[in-house]
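Renewal narrative, Specific Aim 1. Our central claim is that a sequence can be written position by position from structural information alone. The example that follows is taken directly from our test logs and has not been curated for this report. It begins with the structure tokens describing the chain, in the order in which they were read.
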């Protein structure tokens, strides 16, 4: 008799569907992992051996078809099932072509779900798995983080101390330093890793919806609340709720968060009923919350509740000894993705990467390598690097460029870093927006 519980990954942007699926699957004795987006699903796939993928098709940002395409390439033996609310739109043909074994139309019964799952597993057994599971199950601690600097080891050391308890953690660091990765590492390397990890970017939710999204709401609580809905707190029950850009949480949300942390209970918007929650909160910020406390946009009492454990992720320029390992990792990742093989890098090119200060931190380094891999024809060389990096050696080696040219490239770089946000760029450059506009003209 096989006592092993199969791991099933559920991907749907609708939390209610996720919970319904999870309930059904639990009663059938499967282990479940939940992801509210494809991005989230990819993180779980990277760290966990998944026996079956069940995914929605229509999702914001990256859709289910792309997830199927990706998993067909990278996890060809993993059976895939599709649940769709719009069978005619998504097209049966597309779904079958995408490599999914079967599809279920919402709403479905528990029996229909059960049959599809059994069909999927039967299909897999027929295909006879050649690679032994242990070989594919390379236990990847710390969610793929690499580094060897002292600063990096300090971070790993704290992750180790918090991963198995539910102490609240506040992660501080500049943009692109790896704060989200640290949050995932805490969750997925610890003993609650089988419970959900739910990532919420507070900055991406309009202020007037933050409370409802986080804590849930009752039908009729406000215009547009057409049904009862659970929030992210319930979705994360037993696991980790990652609150990114916590500095952008509204004051109303801050008050409720404080209560959730102190009393471990929440109330839905429009409800009086108190509900117990058992989750670990990991928050992150690249803003100076102490400043925000001074100008009264962040609650001081909440700040101290959040910083039970504080993790400072240092900027890349303060841990340049991590650069070679990071470069190697990104070369492998993008080499396989774009060129179907592992790529090397010329020593001169690596030297340039190690010399640069990386204001956009690891994300900027990663983007540069991604670009270089696309441009290269074999070995990544100086010529494949983005202009702003090549230009660095131009000044040290051969002729100098003009100040104007340098200014232009620099402004463009800052703008790329702020993703085109001119106010932010002006702030970094310490010039007013009008001056920036003039320069852009
Ligand atoms: N130690 C590391 N090893 C490998 N990759 C890393 C490491 N740290 C960060 N990365 C990668 O760098 C990128 C940026 O990391 P992440 O999104 O976690 O940064 P962040 O601090 O949350 O940034 P932001 O403040 O802009 O949201 C990601 O693609 C992540 O996988
Ligand atoms: Mg982030």
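The sequence written for that structure reads:
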């Amino acid at each position: 008799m096989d006592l092993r519980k199969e791991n099933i990954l559920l991907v749907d942007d609708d939390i209610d569907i996720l919970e319904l699926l999870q309930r059904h699957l639990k009663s059938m004795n499967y282990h479940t992992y939940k992801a509210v987006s494809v991005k989230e699903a990819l993180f779980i796939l990277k760290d966990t051996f998944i026996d079956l993928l069940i995914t929605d098709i229509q999702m914001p940002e990256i859709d289910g078809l792309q997830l199927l395409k990706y998993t067909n390439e990278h996890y060809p033996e993993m059976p895939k099932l599709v649940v769709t609310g719009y069978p005619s739109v998504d097209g049966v043909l597309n779904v079958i072509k995408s490599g999914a074994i079967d599809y279920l139309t919402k709403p479905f019964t528990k029996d229909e779900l059960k049959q599809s799952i059994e069909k999927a597993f039967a299909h897999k057994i027929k295909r006879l798995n050649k690679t032994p599971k242990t070989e594919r199950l390379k236990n990847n601690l710390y969610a793929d983080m690499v580094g060897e600097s002292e600063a990096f080891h300090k971070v790993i050391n704290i992750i180790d101390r918090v991963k198995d308890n539910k102490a609240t953690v506040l992660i501080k660091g500049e943009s692109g330093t790896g704060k989200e990765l640290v949050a995932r590492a805490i969750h997925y390397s610890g003993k609650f890793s089988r419970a959900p990890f739910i990532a919420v970017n507070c900055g991406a939710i309009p202020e007037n919806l933050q409370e409802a999204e986080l804590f849930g709401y009752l039908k009729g609580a406000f215009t547009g609340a057409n049904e009862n809905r659970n929030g992210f707190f319930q979705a994360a029950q037993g696991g980790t709720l990652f609150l990114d850009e916590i500095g952008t949480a509204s004051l109303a949300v801050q008050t409720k968060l404080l209560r959730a942390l102190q009393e471990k209970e929440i109330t839905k918007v429009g409800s009086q009923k108190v509900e117990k929650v058992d989750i670990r909160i990991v928050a992150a910020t690249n803003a100076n919350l102490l400043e925000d406390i001074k100008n009264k946009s962040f609650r001081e009492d909440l700040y101290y509740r959040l910083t039970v454990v504080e993790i400072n992720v240092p900027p890349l320029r303060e841990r340049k000894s991590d650069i070679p390992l990071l470069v190697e990792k990104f070369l492998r990742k993008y080499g396989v993705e774009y060129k179907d093989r592992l790529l090397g890098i010329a020593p001169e090119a690596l030297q340039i990467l190690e010399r640069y200060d990386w204001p956009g931190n690891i994300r900027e380094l990663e983007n540069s390598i991604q670009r270089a891999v696309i441009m290269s024809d074999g070995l990544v060389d100086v010529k494949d690097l983005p202009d702003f990096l090549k230009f660095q050696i131009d000044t040290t080696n051969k002729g100098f460029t003009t100040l104007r040219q340098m200014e232009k490239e620099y402004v463009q770089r800052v703008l790329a870093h702020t993703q085109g946000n001119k106010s932010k760029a002006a702030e970094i450059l310490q010039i007013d927006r009008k001056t920036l506009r003039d320069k852009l003209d």
